[in-house]
TrEMBL record:
Keywords, comma-separated and alphabetical: Repeat
PANTHER family: ARMADILLO REPEAT-CONTAINING PROTEIN 3 (PTHR46618)
Database matches in Gene3D superfamilies: Leucine-rich Repeat Variant
ARM repeat coordinates: 67-99, 150-192, 191-233, 357-399, 481-506
Domain of life, per lineage: Eukaryota
Name of the protein: Armadillo repeat containing 3
EDR1/CTR1/ARMC3-like peptidase-like domain ranges (all copies): 552-756
PROSITE patterns: ARM_REPEAT
Organism: Oryzias melastigma
Length: 770
């Protein structure tokens, strides 16, 4: 095969074009002669311009300044074949200059040049017209104009030209055009693939290489790959790869093959043709990093199928890949990392990689400057640590966790996503989790949660959920503004992102400070709406809502009107009244800051100290009641007596028993107004209430019960009613063992304090209603 194109071996000559040799005193004269009415003079002028332009770029720019382009473009449409030929050759010679190319673009020369591609024109006209287009097609706007001017069909036809220069120029233009998606689709629809495959048989390497580059681009499209396969494209690629004389084409051929291996049908062809063996041979090609890199990329695609994974493992590909990780070439290292990532999902390969010590090698690559290499190495670490705690520990021992945290700030979404996913894999181990957090992982993840990239969000949310089981981690996330990002993601329309966001909220809402902050940010309302929506509800939305309410009992009571016996009231709990539909429940801090108003007070529990209107309020009465309950109620042996005694304590603290028919005379409203005025706050400590009715007494009873370990619920009724339910087991007198039957009672705190009313009796119903 000749390794020189005709353009290399046959310099352009005057005889080739039939030019008549003339001597022109200056290029200015030649340009002026382009406007001559005599055809012979015009042809001679074109020859002179061609000769002058061929001598260098300065001459081409000089001709541009003399105004040669306008007449030359006009002459492309001349009736004389010789004139058209002379004009296009002169233009083709000048178009090499970037300045000339810009001018051709401004002069809208493309339609006139494309017209010279018609079958009626001479081969030399085709050659120089396509030569012009090779330069113009490098520009984005010109590519679009060539496509819009329907230039692609003519260029495809010229791929079959008998002239290799025309073939070379045409395939180069097409190679530039198909970088754009619409041109790729059009090329396929116009049936260009068979002609392109024929060029692989060319005697000229430059044509073969351009054909392969074009194939590499168009085979990114699934339909094009299907046609490529039907036209025996795979077999023709393998012919190139099997020919040692074509070694300079192997890299491009392998890159095209890598695209085709995205389809299962091509994978079958690889196995049937023993192509896998040939690919493995390319890995050992010395001093050919481009070939090695492309071959590894192919193997990465092959590794998509379980059968291929097994075969590669049997060929001990793991050892080869580990060796390739140590070569100098960055592209080979990067491709090897990608292959390790693909192979890591084969359990046997994962074990081999561990034995070969690949994790420390990959971890070291995280320190390299190449962004692509770091991204690929991180992806490999993710695959190796997925479901493998030994590999996760190896990453930790190699200091990889610190580097992965740093990479969460990277600009490359793939790197960030893989880093977060790897950290998620590692964080299952407590010791590693603590170390990850110590390097500022939550601050970094708070930033990652602001990303627009879906993969980054998915892995970052899972990582947050894994790390947030630690209280310190949740506090760090709050300080870093991560909860705001979480709440924003609850509005996502991507189902997987939404599900992971709900999962992260569920974990982050495990403590009261985070739950309160999430509620303040509007998470509660979003989750409530989500659980009611058929389209947005998911596995974790209801769990997230329940977790949020469980850790923020004040909001739960305001919304649900009920606290179970397992909902333990602690200092900072407040009763803001029944929440209105769609209205956010304000935090205690927000309520404290409000100016004094005429609304119902907010009743707060301060078992320690709390703040009202910037003044420290110590609910000493409540603390005294807790102490008294511990000393006088808790020692009682029978539960029934304990509840009765506690009820009497509550009643005495809030004004004593009030007969039902005298309830309207009980001055509780005036008392609360006076309290608010005295405190200059809408928030009233529950212990400070000396005249309280149902809702106040029930809250105090629940608070004291929870403080001393008794079990009771708190239920809100209408019109300031509230009550406590307790469960008592009936006892069997002969052996004093509890039977299986349980009874529920409402505790009377108002009329006959200490009386337990069976919930199924009229007396209990009357206590709950007016």
């Amino acid at each position: 095969m000749t390794h020189k194109s005709r353009k290399d071996s046959e310099p352009l000559s005057k005889e080739k074009f039939g030019f008549i040799s003339i001597e022109s005193k200056s290029p200015e004269t030649a340009v002026l002669l382009l406007n001559s009415p005599e055809e012979d003079v015009i042809v001679k002028a074109c020859e002179a311009i061609f000769t002058f332009a061929e001598k260098g770029d300065e001459n081409k720019v000089s001709l541009l300044g003399l105004g040669a382009l306008d007449p030359l473009i006009r002459l492309l449409s001349h009736s004389s074949r010789a004139v058209r030929r002379g004009a296009v050759t002169a233009l083709g010679s000048m178009a090499v200059s970037s300045e000339v190319m810009k001018a051709l673009k401004k002069l809208n020369a493309i339609p006139s040049i494309l017209a010279k591609l018609s079958p009626e024109e001479e081969t030399v006209v085709h050659e120089f017209a396509t030569l012009c287009l090779t330069h113009l097609s490098k520009d984005f706007t010109c590519k679009a104009q060539i496509f819009d001017s329907n230039g692609l069909p003519a260029l495809i036809q010229l791929l079959s030209s008998p002239d290799p220069d025309v073939q070379k120029n045409s395939v180069e233009v097409i190679c530039n055009l198909v970088q754009d998606y619409k041109s790729r689709l059009a090329f396929h629809k116009l049936g260009g693939i068979p002609s392109l495959l024929e060029l692989l048989k060319s005697d000229f390497p430059v044509i073969q290489r351009l054909a392969l580059r074009t194939l590499h681009c168009i085979t990114t499209d699934p339909d094009s790959r299907h046609t490529f396969r039907e036209q025996q494209g795979f077999e023709k690629l393998m012919d190139v790869l099997s020919n040692a004389d074509f070694h300079d084409l192997h890299a491009e051929a392998l890159q095209t093959l890598s695209n085709c291996l995205s389809d299962s049908q091509t994978l079958k062809l690889v196995h049937q043709s023993r192509g896998l063996t040939r690919l493995l041979q390319f890995l050992q090609t010395p001093n050919a990093p481009e070939v090695q890199s492309a071959a590894v990329d192919c193997l990465t695609k092959v590794a998509q199928s379980p059968e291929s994974l097994r075969l590669l493992h049997e060929e001990e590909i793991e050892k080869v890949l580990v060796e390739l990780l140590s070569v100098e070439d960055i592209s080979v290292k990067t491709s090897a990392c990608q292959a390790v990532a693909a192979m890591s999902f084969h359990l046997d390969s994962k074990d081999v990689f561990r034995d070969l010590g690949v994790v420390p090698t990959l971890t070291r690559l995280l320190r390299r400057e190449s962004l692509k290499l770091r991204a690929a190495a991180t992806r490999a670490l993710y695959g190796l640590s997925h479901g493998d705690q030994l590999n996760a520990l190896s990453i930790y021992n190699s200091g990889g966790h610190e580097l992965l945290v740093q990479q969460l700030y990277e600009a490359c979404p793939k790197t960030v996503a893989s880093s977060a996913a790897t950290l998620h894999n590692m964080a299952a181990q407590e010791a590693i989790r603590s170390s990850i957090l110590s390097h500022g992982a939550m601050r970094a993840l708070a930033e990652a949660l602001k990303s627009k990239d879906t993969a980054v969000l998915l892995s970052s949310l899972l990582c947050v959920a894994e790390l947030a089981c630690e209280e310190d981690a949740r506090a760090e996330l709050r300080r870093a503004g991560g909860l705001e990002a979480l709440v924003r993601l609850l509005h996502s329309h991507h189902q997987e992102v939404l599900k992971n966001a709900c999962f992260a909220v569920k974990v982050c809402a495990s403590d009261e400070p985070s739950a309160v902050e999430l509620c303040r940010l509007g998470a509660l309302e979003v989750l409530q709406e989500m659980t009611r929506s058929e389209s947005r509800r998911n596995t974790f939305s209801e769990l997230a809502l329940n977790s949020l309410l469980k850790s923020n009992l004040s909001v739960k009571y305001s919304l649900m009107g009920r606290l179970a016996s397992t909902d333990i009231i602690t200092s900072g709990f407040y009763d803001a009244g029944k929440a209105r539909t769609g209205q956010r429940v304000l935090t205690l801090e927000e309520l404290i800051q409000q100016p004094l108003n005429q609304h119902r007070p907010v009743f707060a529990v301060f078992t320690g100290t709390g703040k009202t209107n910037d003044e420290t309020a110590d609910d000493g009465v409540l603390q005294t009641l807790i102490k008294e309950a511990k000393e006088n109620v808790l020692p009682l042996t029978a539960e029934r007596e304990q509840y009765a005694a506690l009820a009497r304590l509550v009643s005495e603290a809030m004004g004593g028993a009030v007969p039902e028919d005298q309830l309207h005379e009980f001055p509780w409203t005036l008392h609360l107004s006076e309290l608010k005025f005295h405190l200059q706050s809408n928030v009233v400590p529950i212990g400070s209430i000396r005249k309280g009715i149902y809702c106040h007494r029930a809250l105090l009873f629940k608070c004291l019960s929870d403080c001393i370990g008794l079990s009771c619920s708190l239920v809100r009724g209408d019109y300031n009613r509230a009550w406590n339910e307790v469960v008592l087991f009936d006892e069997d007198p002969p052996n004093m063992q509890r039977s299986l039957r349980r009874s529920r009672f409402i505790v009377d705190l108002m009329h006959q304090p200490g009386r337990l009313l069976d919930v199924d009796t009229p007396a209990a119903l009357q206590y709950q209603t007016i």
